[in-house]
Design brief:
The protein is an alpha+beta fold and 457 residues long. The protein has two domains: 333 residues, Bira Bifunctional Protein, Domain 2 (BirA Bifunctional Protein, domain 2); 92 residues, 3-Layer(aba) Sandwich (Rossmann fold). It has 16 helices and 16 strands. The structure holds one RNA strand of 76 nucleotides.
RNA sequence: GUGGAUGUAGCUCAGCUGGUAGAGCGCGGGAUUGUGGUUCCCGAUGUCGCGGGUUCAAACCCCGUCUUCCACCCCA
């Protein structure tokens, strides 16, 4: 015996994915990859570990606290990546000369956050990102959003709505309420983001303590957002952007007004471009804020509308970050991206019954005895060369046991190759769904097997 | 970081006011040695999360600790 027995365990917030959960997961990843590639994105991989300074200060105070950080054996301060966006920014700056702009890349990989685990929330989880670096146009924004909606469409998700907003609209409105300092503006925007969860009173309190905003001004500000949100619910009235335009025109002037109007116009352009291809899937929602510091332009979140999964939170979000890449180099390169939370979306799909039950190995080849091994393997190879997924019984024993294992593995067909069959260059295919057996020559085996697999069980 | 729960067989759980553990599912074996999944028979499940305390006696009461989960915060 070697040493004391170890307890087999995983770290809090970290998970193993056994085949039963891995199969639908991988199927989902493949669909997402296909959509990304169909939209011109190319794969990128980056290290899990980055220098701490690469990641620090990009996400805001809360984000910095959630960084998984430590010192490596060489005394370097390092951190596990918190998202896939900052590593992309680093890559674009670092490999600027090797990349052709605009650069479209997708990245499906785990990220780590030292968060407190909860339902739908883990310390290691998978993100699926698609970003365009080097283009600051409404078309780039729209392309990224259409990619995201394309993924949802490919996955069969119907009830999802993209909520679109623009950072500058938020800043303009907050500024119009009398908050001038950027830090306090961000604090206000964070407070607005909680509109869904907290009563106005509480939000006003938060604005008072976090941003030093007078209670009256805070309530007025909140009222503005509540009204703005009501707009798209009401029919026959002006739309969100017209309403916003009207409000900012009465409250702002000069450069601030220009900026706000430009943001509203840009958002509306993007919304219309996307709306034309995905009717009803995108709304201008002035109340969404996004917590991360690096966003500079359009921002968005996707929520599932089905009541069964409404509590699951945002499943796909992102925005434009024109200043981030510039933090790593002399050149300012604008970028926009979208990030999809695989774990959450998968959980939602399972909840909605949109995940097909995974079928295991379809064909199971039994082995009568040691002297029949070669014949069994020959048959297995024959079927595999024909493209079928085939498992050969690797344990042996009574035929009954082997068939039992075949059933437990979820196989649809069992192949029997005894002495009689070998002598006649034949094999018996047993359909485990109905128990029927078919004796066929080896030359017809693959075709018959395929035919049986194609029939419903 | 704050608050609330949870932890008993591989899994889902039961175990009344303290008297050294149970069910279902699953698992193993068997019911004419070339036939599974259905049925029948038999069988094993276990430091009752871990450590300490109270008691003649603790799965049950007390303290601590870890785990998982829920809410808040933030987010995917």
């Amino acid at each position: 015996m070697a040493g004391p027995m170890l307890e087999a365990k995983t770290l809090k917030g970290f998970r193993d994915f056994l085949p039963d959960s891995m199969v639908p997961r991988q199927a989902m990843i493949r669909k997402i990859e296909a959509v990304f590639e169909r939209h011109g994105f190319q794969p990128l991989m980056t290290p899990a570990l980055e220098y701490l300074e690469t990641l620090m200060g990009k996400y805001g105070e809360e984000g910095d606290k959630l960084l998984y950080r430590f010192e490596d054996h060489g005394g370097r301060q390092v951190a596990l990546r918190y998202d896939l966006t900052v590593p992309l920014a680093r890559v674009v700056a670092q490999h600027r000369a090797e990349l052709q702009l605009p650069f479209r890349r997708y990245h499906i990989a785990p990220v780590w956050r030292a968060d407190k685990p909860q339902r739908g929330r883990f310390r290691e989880f998978m993100q699926c990102d698609a970003d365009i670096a080097g283009a600051n146009t409404a078309i780039a924004d729209a392309e990224v959003l259409m990619t995201g909606l394309g993924v949802l469409e490919a996955l069969g998700v119907d009830g999802a709505v993209l909520h679109l907003n623009h950072r500058d609209v938020l800043f303009a409105v907050v500024q119009a309420a009398g908050v001038v300092e950027p830090q306090r503006q961000i604090a206000c925007i964070r407070a607005i983001d909680k509109l869904d969860k907290l009563p106005p009173e509480r939000i006003a309190d938060e604005m008072a303590t976090e941003a030093g905003l007078a209670r009256e001004a805070a309530l007025e500000l909140i009222d503005f957002f509540v009204t703005a949100r009501g707009i798209h619910a009401a029919e026959g009235t002006e739309n969100e952007s017209d309403y916003l335009k009207r409000i900012v025109e009465t409250r702002l002037q000069g450069e601030a007004l220009e900026r706000a109007l430009a943001a509203i116009a840009r958002t509306e352009t993007v919304r219309q471009l996307v709306e034309a291809q995905f009717p009803g899937k995108i709304h201008f929602d002035v109340s969404i804020a996004r917590g991360l510091d690096y966003y500079t332009g359009v921002i968005y979140e996707t929520r599932l509308t089905d009541a069964r999964v409404a509590g699951i939170g945002a499943v796909m979000s992102g925005g434009r970050y024109d200043g981030l890449i510039g933090m790593f180099g002399k050149e300012q390169i604008p970028a926009v991206g979208i990030s999809l939370g695989l774990d959450r979306l998968l959980a939602a799909l399972q909840e909605l019954g949109l995940v097909a039950r995974s079928h295991a190995v379809p064909v199971y080849v039994t082995v009568f005895g040691p002297q029949d091994a070669a014949a069994a393997l020959e048959v297995a190879q024959l079927l595999r060369r024909a493209g079928l997924q085939v498992e050969v019984d690797a344990v042996g024993g009574k035929l009954g046991k082997q068939l039992e294992r075949a059933s437990k593995r979820g196989a649809r067909l069992a192949i029997l190759v005894g002495a009689d069959e070998q002598a006649a260059r034949q094999a018996v295919i047993k359909d485990l769904a109905d128990g029927q057996q078919h004796r066929v020559g080896l030359d017809a085996l693959a075709a018959t097997a395929r035919q049986l697999l194609d029939t419903a069980d």
